UniProtKB/TrEMBL annotation:
<keyword id="KW-0143">Chaperone</keyword>
<dbReference type="InterPro" id="IPR050531">
    <property type="entry name" value="SdhE_FAD_assembly_factor"/>
</dbReference>
<protein>
    <recommendedName>
        <fullName>FAD assembly factor SdhE</fullName>
    </recommendedName>
</protein>
<dbReference type="GO" id="GO:0005737">
    <property type="term" value="C:cytoplasm"/>
</dbReference>
<comment type="similarity">
    <text>Belongs to the SdhE FAD assembly factor family.</text>
</comment>
<dbReference type="InterPro" id="IPR036714">
    <property type="entry name" value="SDH_sf"/>
</dbReference>
<dbReference type="Pfam" id="PF03937">
    <property type="entry name" value="Sdh5"/>
</dbReference>
<dbReference type="GO" id="GO:0006105">
    <property type="term" value="P:succinate metabolic process"/>
</dbReference>
<dbReference type="InterPro" id="IPR005631">
    <property type="entry name" value="SDH"/>
</dbReference>
<keyword id="KW-0963">Cytoplasm</keyword>
<comment type="function">
    <text>An FAD assembly protein, which accelerates covalent attachment of the cofactor into other proteins. Plays an essential role in the assembly of succinate dehydrogenase (SDH, respiratory complex II), an enzyme complex that is a component of both the tricarboxylic acid cycle and the electron transport chain, and which couples the oxidation of succinate to fumarate with the reduction of ubiquinone (coenzyme Q) to ubiquinol. Required for flavinylation (covalent attachment of FAD) of the flavoprotein subunit SdhA of SDH and other flavinylated proteins as well.</text>
</comment>
Length: 65
């Protein structure tokens, strides 16, 4: 899904190099998640059960376009 790719690219371009090892690991967890599940999370149609991943989803959604 192109929209998900754009969110991920935005994070990589703006945040990756300054991110802690822990934050990078959470981002990599997101990358390993199925696109359908990510779409539901980012659209608010399904809650993110893992608090760390929930924080990462919220962080990505707050990045300006």
């Amino acid at each position: 899904m192109r929209e998900l790719d754009q969110l991920m690219e935005r994070y990589l371009d703006r945040c990756w190099f300054e991110a802690s090892t822990e934050e990078r690991a959470r981002f990599e967890q997101l990358l390993a998640t199925e696109d359908d599940k990510l779409w539901r999370w980012f659209m608010g149609r399904e809650p993110v059960d893992d608090p760390a991943l929930r924080g990462m989803v919220e962080r990505l959604l707050q990045l300006p376009p």
